[in-house]
Write a structure and sequence with these properties.
Structural class: alpha+beta
Radius of gyration: 34 Å
Largest sheet: 3 strands, antiparallel
Strand order of the largest sheet: 5-6-7
Number of domains: 3
Family: Belongs to the LOB domain-containing protein family.
Strand content: 5-15%
Protein name: Lateral organ boundaries domain protein
Pfam families: LOB
Order of helices and strands: EEHHHHHHEEEEE
Shape: elongated
Organism: Boehmeria nivea (Chinese grass)
Distance between the termini: 76 Å
Keywords: Coiled coil
Number of strands: 7
Length: about 180
């Protein structure tokens, strides 16, 4: 067929993928042609299978031209997802990706905890509440480790703080650590 404008090349052209699949003549003002080129027949085939050509035509006709390309991309994505997973479609893909994110976040948290543990073992001068409990009970105003005396010793984001206002021994259940 000969075309003379309308955004399509002059000369003999093959019908768009939609018209080819539907076995109809591809008109100059075909709503499908800009979005379903002849060299990508699978795009329209999946969209047609899921939504139907008539519904796709209606959706495209109702949209302003500047939104049609995005709408076709969304329809192709949803149609491909429905073909792969007829029950859940995109929701199934999103759910699967969310589960992967949750799993990876848990793995990341475990790896970060391992790094903290490795750093605790790497720095022997780090305070250990179990070993420093006796030092605390013997001398309430200073905490001592490795010949260093300080009232507050910072380690990562945790600090061991000695309270000078309370002159009682902490219970075994009380924590010397504050975050």
């Amino acid at each position: 067929m000969k075309e003379s404008g309308g955004g399509r090349k002059q000369g003999t052209i093959s019908p768009c993928a939609a018209c080819k699949l539907l076995r109809r003549r591809c008109a100059q003002d075909c709503v499908f042609a800009p979005y379903f080129p002849a060299d990508e027949p699978h795009k329209f085939a999946s969209v047609h299978k899921v939504f139907g050509a008539s519904n796709v035509n209606k959706m495209l006709q109702e949209l302003p031209e500047h939104q049609r390309s995005d709408a076709v991309s969304s329809m192709v994505y949803e149609a491909n997802a429905r073909v792969r997973d007829p029950v859940y479609g995109c929701v199934g893909a999103i759910s699967s990706l969310q589960q992967q994110i949750d799993t990876l976040q848990a793995q990341l948290a475990m790896a970060q905890a391992e790094v903290v543990q490795m750093r605790l073992h790497q720095f022997p001068s780090a305070p250990n509440p179990a070993t420093n409990y006796n030092n605390f009970s013997e001398n309430k105003h200073n905490v001592s480790y490795n010949n260093t005396t300080s009232q507050t010793k910072s380690f990562f984001t945790m600090e061991m703080v000695v309270d000078h206002h309370h002159h009682h021994q902490p219970n075994m259940g009380e924590s010397l650590w504050s975050c």
